[in-house]
């Protein structure tokens, strides 16, 4: 009551009218939409639903079809309501009717979009219909070729919106720049990529920062999600920040895998903001072992080309290398021994076998660690041993040194960080519309 009274007073003082519009509170809301198709002859179909609840700033990030939440009765009721709306306004074309759905499967109309949605490919995957073709047929005056009973749900499809955004800043601060390297994961089975860019394209401030729509299909949800995980690991984007790390973490999160989602998913799961993948102890060892093996493989290649060893070999142990790897705040001894095309690596007293074709010219590297296949990307490296590796979707910064170099590095002065406390920097280009202070003002 107090809130109502204060709101009425605020409305009266601000607008001279104390009337309030009261909306129903919906607990754990899901954003679920129905795809429809209608012709000019009074026929209309609903083509099942799309689950669009994973959002940031009320904009969809991950979509799938069908929804894990709807039962056949609710699906039919929502579909019939969507078709009734289209017929009531004599709509003809493809369209989408959007709903909020509460935890008891009550659904509430949001809006109708009289166009194709970004996420329409997941509907095409599970129904087998080409929605663009159907729109063109309707526009030319042809009647629909299908009946409601003909519309199937075959398998499962997932779409991730790949954005040029920094997910570590408010779940996605737009990034601009030139795509210095770009490679879509089209070699992964059952993958579709809808994009309009290529290597060398510019991502500017003038358009939506979406790079592409990445879609995977499977006979069931688990298969579609596994293929999405593989596709994200194999997607190469350089030159701009991107949200692949966030997308990958979402689709493997236990709540998402169980279908326990709502439009509040991101702020609930990451209340302090997105921080990237948190490595388990085993994953940390895998990353260190992979980084050490990659470092040695590169040095051996240089030795073959130049004829001069770049790192000392401990002869008493055969072909083995003692390395020191810095990851985060930790420094870890990593012992690497070569055995044919593979490496035996000891980290924290645990031995791991690392094998790969070691195609060092490729941005992607498929590595098998004790039988577990991982796809990594080496983002950058320099002469001081600093390297960045994308592992499990997140980019980690490491420094790899030989035992001798690690000892000598103790005597090197620490590089002082730049003091930016007196500098104001805009996170992206824009126009200054006002300056509200003048020299001498205290803020």
Overall number of strands: 22
Beta-strand content bin: 25-35%
- The coarse overall form would be globular
Task: Assign the CATH architecture of the largest domain.
Answer: 2-Layer Sandwich
* Largest sheet: number of strands, sense, barrel closure: 8 strands, antiparallel
How far from one another are the termini? 38 Å
**At the third CATH level, what is the topology name of the largest domain?**
D-amino Acid Aminotransferase, Chain A, domain 1
SS class:
alpha+beta
Domains (count):
2
User: Could you name the CATH homologous superfamily of the largest domain?
Assistant: ATP-grasp fold, B domain
Low-confidence regions: none
What's the total helix number? Answer: 10
Q: What's the Cα radius of gyration?
A: 27 Å
- The overall average pLDDT, rounded, is 93
Task: Explain the overall architecture.
- The protein is an alpha+beta fold and 443 residues long.
- The protein folds into two domains: 30-269, ATP-grasp fold, B domain (D-amino Acid Aminotransferase, Chain A, domain 1, 2-Layer Sandwich), CATH 3.30.470; 281-409, Glycoprotein, Type 4 Pilin.
- 26% of the residues lie in helices and 32% in strands.
- The protein contains ten helices and 22 strands.
- The protein has helices at residues 2-15, 72-88, 120-127, 131-139, 221-233, 244-252, 254-258, 265-269, 281-306, 403-409; strands at 30-38, 44-56, 59-65, 93-101, 107-113, 156-163, 165-166, 173-174, 177-178, 181-183, 191-195, 202-203, 210-218, 236-238, 320-327, 330-339, 342-347, 350-356, 364-369, 372-381, 386-391, 394-402.
- It has an eight-stranded antiparallel sheet, sandwiched between helices. An eight-stranded antiparallel barrel has the order 15-16-17-18-19-20-21-22. Strands 7-8 form a two-stranded antiparallel sheet.
- A hairpin with a 2-residue loop joins strand 19 and strand 20 (372-381).
- Helix 5 packs antiparallel against helix 6 (244-252).
- The longest helix has 26 residues, at 281-306.
- The chain is globular.
- The model has no long low-confidence stretch (mean pLDDT 93).
- Keywords: ATP-binding, Biotin, Ligase, Lipid metabolism, Nucleotide-binding.
- Residues 17-140 form the ATP-grasp domain.
- GO terms for molecular function: ATP binding; metal ion binding; propionyl-CoA carboxylase activity.
- InterPro entries: ATP-grasp, Biotin_carboxylase_complex, Biotin_carboxylation_dom, Biotin_COase_C, CPAse_ATP-bd, PCC_BT, Rudment_hybrid_motif.
- This is PCCA carboxylase.
